[in-house]
């Protein structure tokens, strides 16, 4: 049993052994340790990121890492000045693990883990958590499912017992399954089907990766969710909820011997004989495509643009992330700067999809009355052209990295956010979950930004025109050809 592994030189060089860690990854960790002991390179020093990086490094140095013999990975960070403890549990199972006919099972099972276990039947878990003043929730993603709770420090042992009980010994009845099927179907209707444009746009984007594990929605299909049985969901649990697919993180005031408490409740949990599912990068040949979605509920036209990029394990991931930030993601983005005066869009938002083995950059633009969707596309394409032609100067690149590093530090000041972040650590960052991802970001150059722009974005946009009923489209078309001042007056009146 491997316990108490701190992020420091002596213990790593003394020979931390991990039966699941390839030699290449161990060498990478040792190399990362070496550069971690060096000062930031010249570019970072000129960018004045040392103080922010030091904050990140100091937090990481205080994190203890334990791996139980059954493969469960545990990270702990004691913050004695606090009165609560955040617990985050992440399982390496999401919608990508689902087979045909069982879409939505990962999300449905997430619901069921709040509805009874061997020692906390029925509604006992939410009732006990509410009684002690805990905050708890969960979410399902393409690659993983996470569960998180913040409890008073004195309730840590009880909470670990309840977490272990529901993860290892859930109790599923046909009645409970039926009730949660109804809850999921209601969620599906409210968040997807009752929203204009959303369902067909989502299905069109998913069709771009047909044949891959990411080709269906996380929430699943109505037919599959409705037909799920307790027996099938129990099999789903036995296959995917296993200690070697779990990362557990504690952040906050840890007053008990938490390591031994975790061993007490989790160490006897044995992994099944079959191997974990393995996945490779999604193979997509990005090409420019265009389609229209007409929805009678649509109040106004909008432009959806998407670009297929890379997953978070890919060497280009950090460069793509910085490019997204530069173009769309903050108040000083290129889009904001180019539309500061009299912007052609009423609204813009971008929420990139980040998966383990694929990525999608997306942008939704809602046009002003006198702006066409074609004009908005031309605007976006001009932003990419500027990057190709000019790159990013040192100041702009430094600003992007500063924003990225500040965002990380700001997020990690919250114990629950930090616990979730640690439980989402990738294998390559196992020993350096905070500093190693940043090192990759810090190494991105302007040439890297230009290269990924050319490779993943130029002439590769998936364009979806989101169109309202004909009479709104007719009125919008008329406003586009009227004098600008008149169109703007009508727009203000309508709004």
Explain the layout of strands and helices.
Layout (H helix, E strand, L loop, with lengths): L1 E5 L2 H5 L9 H14 L5 H5 L3 H12 L2 E4 L5 E6 L5 E8 L13 H8 L11 H8 L3 E6 L4 E8 L3 H13 L5 H20 L4 H10 L14 H6 L2 H11 L5 E7 L5 H9 L22 E6 L7 E7 L8 H13 L4 H5 L6 E5 L3 E2 L4 E9 L5 H18 L3 H19 L2 H9 L11 H8 L3 H11 L5 E6 L2 H12 L2 H11 L1
Parallel strand pairs: 3-7, 8-13
Antiparallel strand pairs: 1-2, 2-3, 4-6, 4-7, 5-6, 9-12, 9-13, 10-12, 11-12
Helix pairs in contact: 4-16, 5-8, 7-12, 13-19, 15-19
Description:
The chain has 21 helices and 13 strands. With 495 residues, the chain is an alpha+beta fold. The chain folds into two domains: 63-266, Cytochrome Bc1 Complex, Chain A, domain 1 (2-Layer Sandwich); 289-494, Cytochrome Bc1 Complex, Chain A, domain 1 (2-Layer Sandwich), CATH 3.30.830. The chain has a seven-stranded mixed beta sheet with strand order 1-2-3-7-4-6-5, sandwiched between helices. Strand 11 and strand 12 (359-367) form a beta hairpin. Helix 7 (156-168) packs parallel to helix 12 (258-266) and helix 13 packs across helix 19 (446-456).
């Amino acid at each position: 049993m491997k316990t108490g592994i701190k992020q420091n030189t002596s213990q790593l060089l003394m020979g931390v052994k991990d039966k699941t860690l390839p030699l290449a990854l161990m060498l990478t960790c040792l190399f990362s340790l070496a550069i971690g002991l060096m000062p930031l390179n010249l570019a970072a020093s000129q960018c004045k990121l040392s103080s922010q990086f030091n904050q990140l490094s100091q937090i990481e140095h205080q994190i203890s890492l334990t791996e139980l013999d059954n493969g469960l990975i545990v990270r702990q960070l004691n913050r004695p000045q606090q009165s609560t403890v955040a617990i985050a549990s992440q399982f390496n199972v999401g919608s990508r693990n689902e087979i045909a006919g069982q879409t939505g099972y990962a999300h449905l099972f997430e619901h069921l883990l709040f509805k009874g276990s061997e020692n906390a039947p029925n509604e006992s878990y939410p009732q006990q958590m509410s009684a002690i003043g805990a905050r708890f929730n969960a979410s399902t993603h393409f690659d993983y499912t996470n569960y998180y709770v913040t409890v008073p420090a004195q309730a840590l042992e009880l909470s670990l017992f309840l977490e272990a009980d529901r993860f290892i010994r859930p109790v599923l009845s046909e009645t409970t399954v039926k009730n949660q099927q109804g809850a999921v179907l209601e969620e599906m209707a409210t968040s997807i089907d009752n929203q204009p444009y959303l369902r067909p746009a989502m299905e069109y984007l998913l069709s771009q990766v047909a044949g891959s594990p990411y080709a269906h929605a996380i929430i699943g299909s109505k037919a599959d969710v409705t037909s799920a049985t307790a027996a099938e969901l129990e099999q789903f649990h036995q296959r995917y909820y296993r200690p070697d697919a779990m990362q557990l993180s504690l952040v906050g005031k840890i007053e008990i011997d938490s390591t031994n408490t975790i061993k007490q409740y989790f160490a006897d949990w044995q992994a099944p004989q079959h191997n974990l599912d393995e996945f490779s990068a999604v193979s997509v040949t990005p090409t420019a495509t265009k389609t229209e979605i007409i929805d009678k509920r649509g109040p106004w036209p909008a432009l959806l643009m998407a670009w297929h990029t890379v997953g978070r394990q890919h060497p280009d991931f950090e460069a793509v992330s910085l490019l997204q930030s530069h173009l769309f993601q903050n108040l000083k983005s290129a889009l904001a700067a180019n539309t500061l005066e009299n912007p052609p869009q009423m609204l813009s938002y971008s929420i990139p999809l980040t998966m383990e083995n694929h990525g999608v950059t997306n942008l939704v633009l809602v046009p002003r009355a006198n702006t066409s969707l074609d004009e908005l596309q031309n605007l976006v394409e001009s932003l990419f052209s500027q990057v190709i032609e000019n790159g990013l100067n040192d100041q702009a690149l430094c600003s992007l990295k500063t924003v990225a590093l500040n965002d990380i530090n700001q997020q990690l000041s919250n114990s629950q956010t930090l616990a979730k972040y640690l439980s989402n650590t990738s294998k390559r960052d196992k020993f350096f979950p905070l500093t190693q991802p940043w090192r990759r970001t810090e190494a991105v150059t302007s040439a890297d930004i230009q290269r990924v722009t050319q490779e993943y974005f130029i002439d590769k946009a998936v364009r979806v025109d989101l169109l309202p009923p004909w009479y709104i489209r007719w009125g919008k078309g008329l406003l586009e050809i009227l004098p600008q001042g008149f169109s703007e007056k009508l727009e203000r009146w309508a709004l």
